[in-house]
UniProtKB/TrEMBL annotation:
It is found in: Cell envelope. InterPro entries: Beta-glucan_modifiers, GH. Residues 65-114 are annotated as: Disordered. It comes from Coniochaeta ligniaria NRRL 30616. Transmembrane segments: none annotated. GO terms for biological process: cell wall organization. Keywords: Hydrolase. Its main location: other. This is Glycoside hydrolase. GO terms for molecular function: glucan endo-1,3-beta-D-glucosidase activity. It comes from the Eukaryota. SUPFAM superfamilies: (Trans)glycosidases.
C-alpha cells in the first residue's frame, strides 16, 4: 500500500528529478491554512523532458525516507477527468533481447492463458479481520470468488503458510499467482519456504512472477542498492529451483522516479500508483492519473520499451476526503472503471487492482485518511 514520503511538483526548468526540503503550508478547500510542516519536495520534469538513462553500478545510492504524511502526490499532467477514447497503451513494450533476465511478457514461469491475460489481477491478504491467518478453506473460497473477475492474484509474503494455500487454491480455480517476499531479512530462508511450498502443493506453472519487497525504498526500510542485491540473489536462487519467470521489486512510482535502476534490475517494471493520495484527482480521473504516472516512469527508464505493470491501484470506499479525492462506494466504482478503461481489455494483464477484500486487520490512521481498511472491491 502506498505511503507517500514526499510532495512531487512538475517543473519544466529542470532536466531530472531533484529533491529539496521546504516548509509547506497545507490549506483547506477555502484556502485557509490548517497546518504547516517541513516536507521533502520532489521536483520532476514534465514527461516530455526525457531523462538520461541510468547505470546501476554508477548511480545506486543510499536513500532514506522522510516519513512524511501520505497526503500529497504528483499532480496529473493530463486533462483531469478526461480519459481518451484511444490512448497509447501505458504498459506495453518488449524488453530488448539478449539481457541476462529479460522475460518481458511474464509467460515463461506462468504459462499464461489468453483468458487470464484478458483480465486484471488483484491483491489479496492472508489475514482475517483479527489478524490471524486465513485457513485453507477460507483462501479457497476467496479464490473462487476472485476467479470470476480476475486472472491473477498477488500475495505479499511467505508467512501464514500463504504460499501453500494460494498455490493449492490457484490450481483449483485456474488463477495465476504473483508471489512475494515481503522483507529482506532472512532472505534465503524466505526463498526456501516459497520454493518448498510451490513444490509441495503444486508447481511453477501457476506462478506468473515473484516480487522482492513492497515499497521498501519508499518507506525507508531498505536502500535501493540493498533491494537491487536482493533481487539478483533471489533470481539466482529461483532459477536454481526451476522458476524461470519474472523476478522484480515493487515500489511506488515516486521511488522509481528517484531510483529507476529498481526497474533496470527487474524483469519488468513494477510500480504502485494510488490516485487517491493525490488531492487534485477526483475518482473519475483516477485512470488518467495512473496513465500519466506510468508515462513519467517510462520517461526515466534505461529501456523505454520495458514492460510496466501497475502492481497496486484502486480507491477506498470509506474514509476521510483527501481534497478532491473522496472515498465512497460510487466513487470507488467510478475510479476502478476509469482505471480499467485506460488500460483497455487487451492490456489488463499489466494491471493489478488493490484490493480484493477489506483489510480490517490494518490500523486506521490519519496519514492514510482513515481509509486503510476499506479498499476492498468485492464488497457490494
Amino acid at each position: 500500500m502506498l505511503r507517500r514520503d514526499s510532495i512531487t511538483v512538475v517543473v519544466s526548468a529542470i532536466p531530472s528529478p531533484t529533491e529539496m526540503t521546504e516548509a509547506v503550508v497545507f490549506v483547506d478547500h477555502n484556502g485557509q491554512p490548517v497546518r504547516t510542516a517541513t516536507e521533502v519536495i520532489m521536483l520532476v520534469p514534465p514527461t516530455t523532458n526525457r531523462a538520461q538513462p541510468y547505470s546501476i553500478q554508477a548511480t545506486a545510492t543510499t536513500l532514506t525516507s522522510a516519513g512524511g504524511p501520505a497526503s500529497v502526490g504528483q499532480q496529473s499532467t493530463g486533462p483531469v477527468g478526461l480519459v481518451p477514447t484511444q490512448v497509447p497503451d501505458p504498459s506495453t513494450g518488449a524488453s530488448t533481447a539478449g539481457g541476462p533476465h529479460t522475460e518481458p511478457n511474464g509467460v515463461e514461469g506462468g504459462d499464461s492463458t489468453a483468458a487470464a491475460a484478458s483480465l486484471p489481477g488483484v491483491s489479496y491478504s492472508a489475514y482475517n479481520a483479527h489478524g490471524a491467518c486465513k485457513t485453507g478453506s477460507r483462501v479457497l473460497s476467496d479464490f473462487q470468488r476472485m476467479a470470476t473477475q480476475y486472472g491473477l492474484v498477488r500475495i505479499y509474503g511467505v508467512d501464514c503458510g500463504q504460499v501453500a494455500t494460494a498455490v493449492s487454491a490457484a490450481r483449483s480455480t485456474g488463477l495465476k499467482l504473483f508471489l512475494g517476499i515481503f522483507q529482506l531479512d532472512n532472505l534465503e530462508k524466505q526463498i526456501g519456504e516459497l520454493v518448498d511450498a510451490v513444490h509441495t502443493h503444486g508447481d511453477w506453472s501457476v506462478v506468473e512472477a515473484v516480487s522482492v519487497g513492497n515499497e521498501l525504498v519508499n518507506n525507508g526500510q531498505a536502500t535501493a542498492q540493498e533491494v537491487i542485491n536482493a533481487v539478483a540473489a533471489t533470481r539466482q536462487s529461483l532459477r536454481s529451483a526451476g522458476f524461470h519467470g519474472p523476478v522484480v521489486t515493487v515500489d511506488t512510482f515516486i521511488a522509481v522516479l528517484r531510483n529507476p535502476w529498481l526497474c533496470d534490475v527487474s524483469d519488468f517494471c513494477a510500480v504502485n500508483i494510488h490516485p487517491f493520495f493525490d488531492p487534485n484527482t477526483p475518482a473519475p480521473a483516477a485512470g488518467m492519473f495512473v496513465y500519466n504516472q506510468v508515462a513519467a516512469v517510462r520517461n526515466v527508464l534505461k529501456n523505454p520499451n520495458q514492460r510496466i505493470v501497475v502492481t497496486e491501484t484502486g480507491w477506498p470506499w470509506q474514509g476521510c476526503a483527501n481534497g478532491d479525492a473522496v472515498p465512497g462506494k460510487e466513487n470507488q466504482r467510478a475510479a476502478i472503471t476509469s482505471i480499467k478503461t485506460v488500460f483497455g481489455a487487451g492490456h489488463s494483464d499489466n494491471l493489478i487492482l488493490f484490493s480484493a477484500f477489506n483489510d480490517m486487520w490494518k490500523k486506521a490512521e490519519p496519514s492514510t485518511f482513515y481509509a486503510e481498511q476499506y479498499w476492498g472491491i468485492n464488497q457490494f
